[in-house]
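Dear support,

We are seeing what looks like truncated structure output for some complexes. This example has two components. We would appreciate it if you could run it in full and send us the complete token output so we can diff it against ours.
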Amino acid sequence: MTDAKPIISIRNVTKKFGNVTAVNNVSIDVMPGEFFALLGPSGCGKTTLLRMLAGFETASDGEIEIDGQPMLGVSPNKRPVNMVFQSYAVFPHMSVFDNVAYGLKVTGVQKDEIAGRVEEALSLVHLEEYGKRKPDQLSGGQRQRVALARALVKKPKVLLLDEPLSALDAKLREAMRLELVRLQHTVGITFVIVTHDQDEALSMADRAAVMDRGVVRQIAPPDELYEHPNSLFVADFIGKVNMLEAKVAGQSGGEMVVEVKGMGRVTVPHDGAASGDIGIAVRPEKTVLSVEKPGEGVVALKGKVCDVAYYGSESNVLLDTETGVQFISTIQNDARHSALSVAIGDDLWISWAPGNTLVLAE
Amino acid sequence: MTDIVAGRRRRREVNPLEYLKRPWMWLTLFGCFVFLYFPIVTLVAFSFNSYKRAFVWKGFSLEWYEKAFNNQALHEAFINSMHVAAVSTVVSTALGAMLGLALYRYWFPWKGTYEGIIHLPIVIPEICMAVAMVIFFWAVGIELSLYTIIVSHIAFTIPFVAVVIRARMAGFDVSLEEASRDLGASEWQTFWFVTFPYMIPGLVAGALMAFVLSLDDFVITFFTAGVGDNTFPVKIYSMLRFSVTPEVNAASTVLILITLSLTLVAMIMQSRWTKGKKE
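Here is the complete output from our reference environment:
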């Protein structure tokens, strides 16, 4: 993958709507066969970026190349990409078959070839039996499959998906995630998916770009985004995080001494350069709760339990810590009778190994 | 004892949801119905009168219908009406649909004002429209004929069609057009395969509305007609001036029938389409 040419190359792309900059100097390379996610809160510019790939918006500045071809001035119907719309946009007056055949029909594919390719596409999404149905006789999930088949039948170089799972209920959404990954492996097409749901991006994508107010904050595989976020924004957006304000007090070798507000000096492993005001953070599931003060070699804080949220397989314990910052600790309910029973008002210690500390420059 | 009395009282009270037991509701319904339909029912009933006085019932007969059907002038007027209504409907539906679509899709400076002005002919008194038309035709030097009627009808039915199309397009999902483009269709293909089919119910409703408006119109037609160019309503009016015989009733009943059946067709088509759209 290292020496392959990117299938999508976005270089310094900016999009302005009047005074509003929706996408600000974004550069992304997507490799062939990759499942790539554009992730961010609503209004971060991820959909605008996707629409620029599809050709519905024109970049105010910068260049987009798809499959080596510059896309400036190329209209949506001439681009080697196809899109699955958030509303699915299945044509209501056409049968499922006609919907899937549409993209072939308008581009002049022979009739006998159309039938075969439509059958193939429908079987890919398990809708072989539904060709004659009208969209209003389908469930939401089935309509989405029609939208998928309709795009895939065109054999695009890249499939663009705009929040494809947001309109489905929770159970179906879970199933569709696996289904989309399976589909991508089957067809081997590059997928670019836009989502605001970090779980979706983490579970499906090979790599994701985290966007914030038009800017790309980090592009990395899911585990790296989670374990090595490069900024407070990414750490906070991807999963839950407990954050403390700190100042760099010294750095030597692979270690850094930080002065944490309300806590004193803490030594954490850190390779990169950092100075001045930073944040240190830890994921809730990487913390340990104990009644006794934990031994040396860990970062520990005293706290009082102020809430316990039970989720079945796990519980989130909310503590008011001595630093004045609330901490969340996730504990696994891996036995029916937990050794540590936590009640509101309990005084507990929360601790974690220094290696689990995230050092976040603002 | 007091309990029983209370029980009786309660039984006499009408439950808020038992509105069928409320006499004033029935009275309102009945009163309005009579007010609306008494003249029309009378008109239709007396068209079957065998006596030539329009107001004295003598017995059932179809002779006035026969007479009306054999009335050459009425025939001619009817054909004129159909001619005018058909041509003006085709033109005003096409223009009105384009206008409605443009207003739905595009923004341009002064759009709000433009829209308001476009819809004005709906509320401008018809007599003013009529006078304006005639004076315009005179000023430009166009001789009044069937064609001046057609032009005037096109002018006053366009806003109705545009309103209907606009209302229809309000429920349109723009991503359908984007999907079509994305799948390789040109703008023209997208319009014919995706947008136009969606517009059809609106087009049918708008066209029927334009047709009925044109067919029924009296004031504007009366003013803009050339000498001897009678349409059906104008002819009925002139018949009324000579003698009030049940032939007028018969002719009017036919007009009512045409209008009603067209409206019925429109309603049936509308309900079919909306049924098809339901989840």
